[in-house]
Amino acid sequence: MSIVSRGYAKYNDLCSRAYVLRESISEKYSQPILFVVGAGLLGLGLSNVSEAQPVLNDERIRCAAHQLLALTEGNMGALLMVVAGLATIISAAFGAFRAATSLLVVACSAFILRSLVHIFFNLGPVPQGCAVTSVP
């Protein structure tokens, strides 16, 4: 037997012993280990060290959201609602009821989008620096 084959045999034996040891530890102690790791992550996550930025300036995001909602409230939203409604009727006539249902959801959501955004995200009034204009 050569030196390489003996080294490979020892390496293979060491790997199989490590695998058996890992399996026995993971079978016996998997729940306590996961509990300790989870409690540690929760403890570190709730500490003051985890604060990334104490103050976030989101005025640009708010302005962009208001401009997008102004577009969907105006002519573009009306066009989207009418086209989706007509496509709903046409696809239902051809028997594509899944597509008709999807298009019906698009038409209704274009109609009530601003209300849903205000309910779920509390967008508030238009900020002072935003130039929200309606599209002619």
The tally of domains stands at 2
Uncertain stretches of 5 or more adjacent residues: none
User: Helix tally?
Assistant: 4
- Level of helix content? over 70%
Structural class: mainly alpha
Q: What is the count of β-strands?
A: 0
Mean pLDDT: 80
The biggest sheet, with number of strands, parallel, antiparallel or mixed sense and barrel status, is: none
**What's the N-to-C terminus distance?**
88 Å
Order of helices and strands: HHHH
The radius of gyration computed from the alpha-carbon positions, rounded to a whole number of angstroms, is 30 Å
How does the overall form come out from the CA principal axes?
elongated
Strand proportion, as a percent range, falls in under 5%
Give a description of the structure.
- The chain has 136 residues and is an all-alpha fold.
- It has two domains: 3-50; 59-121.
- Helices cover 75% and strands 0% of the residues.
- The protein is built from four helices and no strands.
- The protein has helices spanning 3-45, 59-73, 75-93, 97-121.
- Helix 3 packs antiparallel against helix 4.
- The model has no long low-confidence stretch (mean pLDDT 80).
